[in-house]
Amino acid sequence: MQGGSTGVGYGLKYQARCIADVKADTDHTSFITGTLSLKEENEVHLLRLSSDGTELICEGLFSHPNEIWDLSSCPFDQRLFSTVFSSGESYGAAVWQIPELYGQLNSPQLEKIASLDASSCKIKCVLWSPSGRHDKLISIDEQNVFLWSLDSSKKAVKLQSQESAGMLHYLSGGAWDPHDVNVVASTCESSIQFWDLRTMKTTSSIEAHVRNMDYDVRKKYILVTAEDESGIHIWDLRMPKAPIQEFPGHAHWTWAVKCNPDLDGLILSAGTDSAVNLWWASHISNDDATSESLVDSPTRKMDSLLNTYSDYEDSVYGITWSFREPWIFASLSYDGRVVVESVKPYLPKR
């Protein structure tokens, strides 16, 4: 199904790649996004969807000193978030705090709580523990995985441990298992590596060329990946030799995938074909789908495309579901356009 946009839009001043749901804001449907301007002072925008769902309101606009390549909101404190940023050839990562009375200040400034500055090469992402209130952070650069302990009240961070992925691997991203706080998955050129944070060693791997991935919060063992070319694979980690389901993805690169936090089987993907696709994975929505009876089953190639949102003029790099209203998602195209949409009209009949 091909559809335009009936969504709510908001324009950033500069180009951008990163948007995140403010999960800790339980009173409003909120998102945070940051810009990627080489020459200008970059910005972080805190956006709130109006109660009637017809307007995106800028709740806070803050200066950020560098180009933002990765942005994540703290899952237990709505005023905390992390960024990965670059200045020329150098990369850094930090945890920031939004001022408490930012709405009443003329020019509110972000406060840098902690710098995650152990990396000597390009930083790819920062991960917050998905298990609620937790003081652990992960940062991943091209060669290493770092485990940090954060004390936001004391505005301090401590490097607990780090481990190299080895000379043969070039790390590109990661995801924290929401069902096991001791497991983090990292992507490299030709595989997904699974790390045990207690030993900081890899325990297993899957051969796959992956650009992005996301764990299913509701279904244990399910991992969804955006393949390096265009496709989308769904994996049952108990049967890692082959994906249990495949989608064709996008006409060009599939850049990001996100599993819905509450509605079984719903997956979003964003691509450089200027589109966001909404998929329904029957394997995930069926409680028996990941049973041991699938061990000998071949990969199912299916096109369960519910809708294509195509009202974009540039590549779409950022997508995020709303945790508070899980039928709503926000997307961000490279030209700085934020669009918030509802998937309710396209939900499969149960």
What would you say this structure looks like, in words?
The chain is an all-beta fold and 350 residues long. The chain has one helix at 282-285; strands at 2-3, 8-11, 16-21, 30-35, 42-49, 56-64, 67-73, 80-87, 90-97, 111-115, 123-128, 136-141, 144-151, 156-164, 173-176, 183-187, 191-196, 201-207, 210-215, 222-227, 232-236, 245-247, 254-259, 266-271, 275-280, 300-301, 305-309, 316-321, 328-333, 337-342. The strands form 7 sheets. It has a 5-stranded mixed β-sheet. A hairpin with a 2-residue loop joins strand 12 (136-141) and strand 13 (144-151). The longest helix has 4 residues, at 282-285. The two termini are 19 Å apart. Mean pLDDT is 89; it is low at 288-296.
What would a concise description of this structure say?
This protein has one helix at residues 282-285, and strands at residues 2-3, 8-11, 16-21, 30-35, 42-49, 56-64, 67-73, 80-87, 90-97, 111-115, 123-128, 136-141, 144-151, 156-164, 173-176, 183-187, 191-196, 201-207, 210-215, 222-227, 232-236, 245-247, 254-259, 266-271, 275-280, 300-301, 305-309, 316-321, 328-333, 337-342.
